[in-house]
Amino acid sequence: MAAKRCLASAATATAMLLILAACGSGWVPPQRNEVSFLRGPYNAAFFWRHPDPFRWQAAIHYAHAVQHDRLQLTPLARHAEVDTRTDADYLAALERPPLTDPHMMLYGPHVGQAIWKLYLAIDWTHQLHEQTYDILMSERVPWQEKARWTERTVRNYLARQPGIARSPAPLDVTMRRAGVMMKPYFTLFRNRYPASNDFFYVAHWWHPVIYEAVMIAGNDAEQDESVLATHALTEQVLAERPQRMLLSRENMPRYARLSPAAANVFDNLHMLHGIAYDVLAYEGWSIEEKRREIERVVAAMAEQPGDEQLARRFDLPYPGMDPRRYADWMRPAEGAMTRMMLEMLEEMWPMMSPDGAATPPAEVVEQAKKKLAPGLQPGEIDGSLMDALKELVPGMRMAPESMQPGATPRRMIDAMLAGWQRRHGDTREVEPFPMDEDPALPAVGHARAPR
């Protein structure tokens, strides 16, 4: 009898879920359809060979999960207090990191129940991080076989979760496709929560340099020396945090040549984190409206036809960088990320300018640079980038309908993609990285880019 009542209750619950979905409530049943990583001789190599860095990565992912709920549930008026407390929580997590890599839902359940596609995209890409680290660090995978095994896991990543896997195209393309710069939330997280934001800039420095520490050392015991020396820099980097999101092409140029698709996927994930945090920090939309906007961005930055053909189309500004050094160029707000954003502003400006000017005036560019830096700078107008530019240029032309949650600013996106084609369409593909022999670890500061 009890079993019959349970079956009846389950049937009723299922029917209610279907009715809610069919009635246009906007609620979507959380059919996550999760898949796991591939098996191979390398599985868990990161965990066993470099346990301290592995657990540091787990603490980073704990922080990413916590940040979602903290932003959504915190009134913006309390941003300074909550930012200070959150950063302290993250630093404490680094002191006693988790033993295993957590899923987003474990520490961010509120947002996860409402915007589960975001978490699926993050968790699936975190698995790719772990798998590609495993391959690179495994002594059971010969150095000459690293590229083949990496290609296998990247292809599985892209094929198993269409629409969820991040794009293998460079961020220059996918950021333009996302069309977020003139949305009412853009820059809110970095401006209102600078300590938390800069913690993630450290995390996005750390992920690539750990790959690069292996690339200059190879499979043998030199790898242990290189990874530990690179990981030991985290104390210095936390004390003087980067002021921009460092890109894979800057911070792991050798690995970006070995697997440009993976390098671009990781940039696209890191940027998705920042966009989602901006949306969640914005108080002008309901959680349902935020879901529509974030799912739009998730789709825009997912793999699309032709993306793999663009995977190698990027420059390498620091091809001989040494991951064991915290170089001066890693620290300021100026760099590849800021350059990309300013290019996009210039490409949109003819549609926004009240007088039809082809390029934004100096005061607009200067204000944009301030908004793109963490915190509030002297002379910076409060609010999002859109708020600041509207105040600075009162007659600025906008398309209000495209600023709505979930709406795609098609004309702006088309203008930016055309701009990328003009600027970078003839960029030469980066050459594959030579993996014919295990490298000898150079002295610190003497790492060089191979031909």
The major pleated sheet works out as: none
Average of the residue pLDDT scores: 92
Number of strands: 0
What is the count of helical runs?
21
What is the total domain count? Answer: 2
Output the helix-strand order: HHHHHHHHHHHHHHHHHHHHH
Question: What keywords describe this structure?
Answer:
451 residues; mainly alpha; 2 domains; 58% helix; disordered N terminus
Can you walk through the features of this model?
Helix content is 58%, strand content 0%. The longest helix is centred in the first third of the chain and has 23 residues, at 51-73. It is globular and about 60 Å long. It is mostly helical. The protein has helices at 2-22, 45-49, 51-73, 79-95, 104-107, 109-114, 116-137, 146-160, 171-178, 188-192, 194-215, 222-231, 234-239, 248-251, 253-258, 260-281, 287-300, 336-352, 362-372, 385-392, 410-424. The chain folds into two domains: 45-332, no CATH class; 338-424, no CATH class. It has 21 helices and no strands. Helix 4 runs parallel beside helix 11 (194-215), helix 9 runs antiparallel to helix 21 and helix 19 (362-372) packs antiparallel against helix 20. Mean pLDDT is 92; it is low at 1-27.
Please give the structural blueprint.
Blueprint: H1 2-22, H2 45-49, H3 51-73, H4 79-95, H5 104-107, H6 109-114, H7 116-137, H8 146-160, H9 171-178, H10 188-192, H11 194-215, H12 222-231, H13 234-239, H14 248-251, H15 253-258, H16 260-281, H17 287-300, H18 336-352, H19 362-372, H20 385-392, H21 410-424
Helix pairs in contact: 3-4, 3-11, 3-16, 4-11, 7-8, 7-16, 9-21, 11-12, 16-17, 18-19, 18-21, 19-20
